[in-house]
TrEMBL record:
Transmembrane regions: 12-35, 56-85, 91-111, 132-157, 169-192, 213-236
PANTHER family referenced in this protein's UniProt entry, alphabetically: CYTOCHROME C-TYPE BIOGENESIS PROTEIN HI_1454-RELATED
Domain of life: Bacteria
GO biological process, one term: cytochrome complex assembly
Keywords from the named record: Cytochrome c-type biogenesis, Membrane, Transmembrane, Transmembrane helix
Membrane topology: Multi-pass membrane protein
Name of the featured protein: Cytochrome c biogenesis protein CcdA
GO cellular component, one term: membrane
Organism: Fuscibacter oryzae
One Pfam family cited in the UniProt record for this chain: DsbD_TM
Length: 246
């Protein structure tokens, strides 16, 4: 489908991890609480109107497209960089695994990395109610949210760098963008119904952070041990229909 084999021993589990990481990024403390007001600004309607059934679908879609554009470019760049280091794959895997485990320890609150406890928001020249403005905001906030979602995003970029292929890296970051974009669109479509769900996640934000930390720590360990290959073969053995995809 994409002109590449996405079901090899490394990319299949990485795609699953990227999708989950995108969803956990959406649930992070600097993203989830500000989704409703951003949707209201971009669409030119109030949060109250959204709760009553007005869905700012177009604004949300273009905002997600803006985010995805940046993530895809980052994935391609990371993969191109990784291609330059193909002769040092083992060393890259070891270093990357250690770094990702450190990110995991941050979320597990074993220690804190100050950079990831702040958010550098950017102002974009966007006009409320404009699809182009929503796209521009998506581009800007992809960078502005980076300090907060940095550990998850860095882990996926590290996986992309190990692929050594621009196409494969772009597919991997597309999965990450999908994990972030689907819940964003769900909020835009079903604000009234999603409000209690968002309130639940806000109350359990610390637990979500710890889940993110455990996931990142596990990813780092798999990088160090070569476990992604074993996991991929296990998936194909127990879910043979996956071999028909792609």
């Amino acid at each position: 489908m994409f002109g590449i084999d996405i079901l090899d021993a490394s990319l299949l589990p990485a795609l699953l991890v990227a999708l989950i990481a995108g969803t956990l990024s959406f649930l992070s403390p600097c993203v989830l609480p500000i989704v409703p007001p951003y949707l209201a600004y971009m669409s030119g309607i109030s949060v109250g109107e959204m709760k009553q059934g007005r869905a700012p679908v177009l604004a949300a879609l273009f905002f997600v497209l803006g985010l995805s554009t940046v993530f895809l470019l980052l994935g391609a760049a990371a993969s191109a960089f990784g291609a330059l280091l193909l002769g040092y794959t083992d060393m890259l895997s070891t270093v990357a695994g250690v770094v990702v485990m450190i990110f995991g320890a941050h979320f597990l609150r074993i220690f804190r990395i100050p950079l990831f406890d702040r958010e550098a928001r950017l102002d974009a020249p966007a006009q409320g109610g404009s699809a182009l403005g929503a796209y521009a905001l998506g581009l800007a906030f992809a960078f502005g949210w980076t300090p907060c979602i940095g550990p998850q995003l860095a882990a996926i970029l590290t996986l992309a760098a190990q692929e050594g292929s621009v196409e494969r890296g772009a597919v991997l970051l597309a999965a990450y963008a999908l994990g972030l974009g689907i819940p964003f669109m769900a909020v835009a479509l079903f604000m009234g119904r999603m409000t209690p769900v968002m309130a639940f996640f806000k109350r359990h934000m610390e637990r979500i952070e710890r889940i993110s930390g455990l996931m990142l720590w596990t990813i780092g360990l798999l990088m160090l041990t070569g476990g992604f290959s074993a996991f991929s073969y296990w998936l194909l053995e127990h879910l043979p229909f996956l071999a028909e995809i792609g």
